[in-house]
Amino acid sequence: METESAKFFAAALAIAMGALGPSIALGFLAGKGLEAIGRNPEAASKIQSSMILMGAFTEAIAIYALIVAIIIKLV
Amino acid sequence: MVAINAETIFKIGDFPITNSVIAASLPIIALAIITFIGTRKMKKRPKGLQNVLEMIVESILKLTHDVVENKKVANLVFPIVATFFIFIIVNNWAGLLPGFGTIGVYETIEGHEKLVPILRSANADLNTTIMLSILSVLTIQIVGISALGLKKYSKKFFNFSSPILFFVGILELISEFIKIISFSFRLYGNVFAGEVLLIVITLLVPYVMPIPFYGLELFVGFIQALVFTMLTLVFIKMATAEVH
Domain limits at B15? Predict the structure, then answer.
């Protein structure tokens, strides 16, 4: 396989496999967060801000994979 | 398409001025002018521009006090944390204005003719985000040391009471350095990927389709500023917490 086509494969696989884990993790996070809000509606704003914070942490991992894919493709 | 690194427009002596430096100085000048106009002849009952500025400052102050429960530390870190928030959000939103990335000069680089834009969103350059994250981690360390004292603070990292705790301390030390990378790449990735996404969508369907993506970019710009600020505050709270 020549380098050009290998580059295409590498970029696609990098972001595809890299986004798999964080998306499942975000699903769990949202599920547990909503469950907690449902059980205790008074603490909703605290749970909400924690959820957004943890969401950004998890999202960052997918962004690292995206950066690797962009670097493979463009550099 | 978009270049990964920001292109140099001109040099002052030996120091290259890239297009993201030019694009970062415009919001700074605009903010300085707006704040100067808003704080002349301040009244006890604010109206107009002074009212808006006070609203913004109050909401960030409330966020700081909510996350960092310690009042002294919150008042100490409020200026730099508010600067992070306002700098990141104004630069992210300014990067969506027309003219960013489109007005430029044609240059021949490596045989191809490419457009070198004069303005480029400031956080789409890794230099800006690394600068912000190094400042943030330095702030966390300095506030932690000043609140706990150097001996107590370094006990968190160099704990000689048992082998397991020693290993945990070393991991904590490494994780402080990883924070720099994590902060910078989160912000850089979000803004740069948003830029590339907008360019690709405009290439595909230029007419109505980019509108929801601009909405997404506005939202992402705000959320990334909020996340950067809140993470800094949470780490400050953790750094000033007493070791049990």
Answer: 8-239
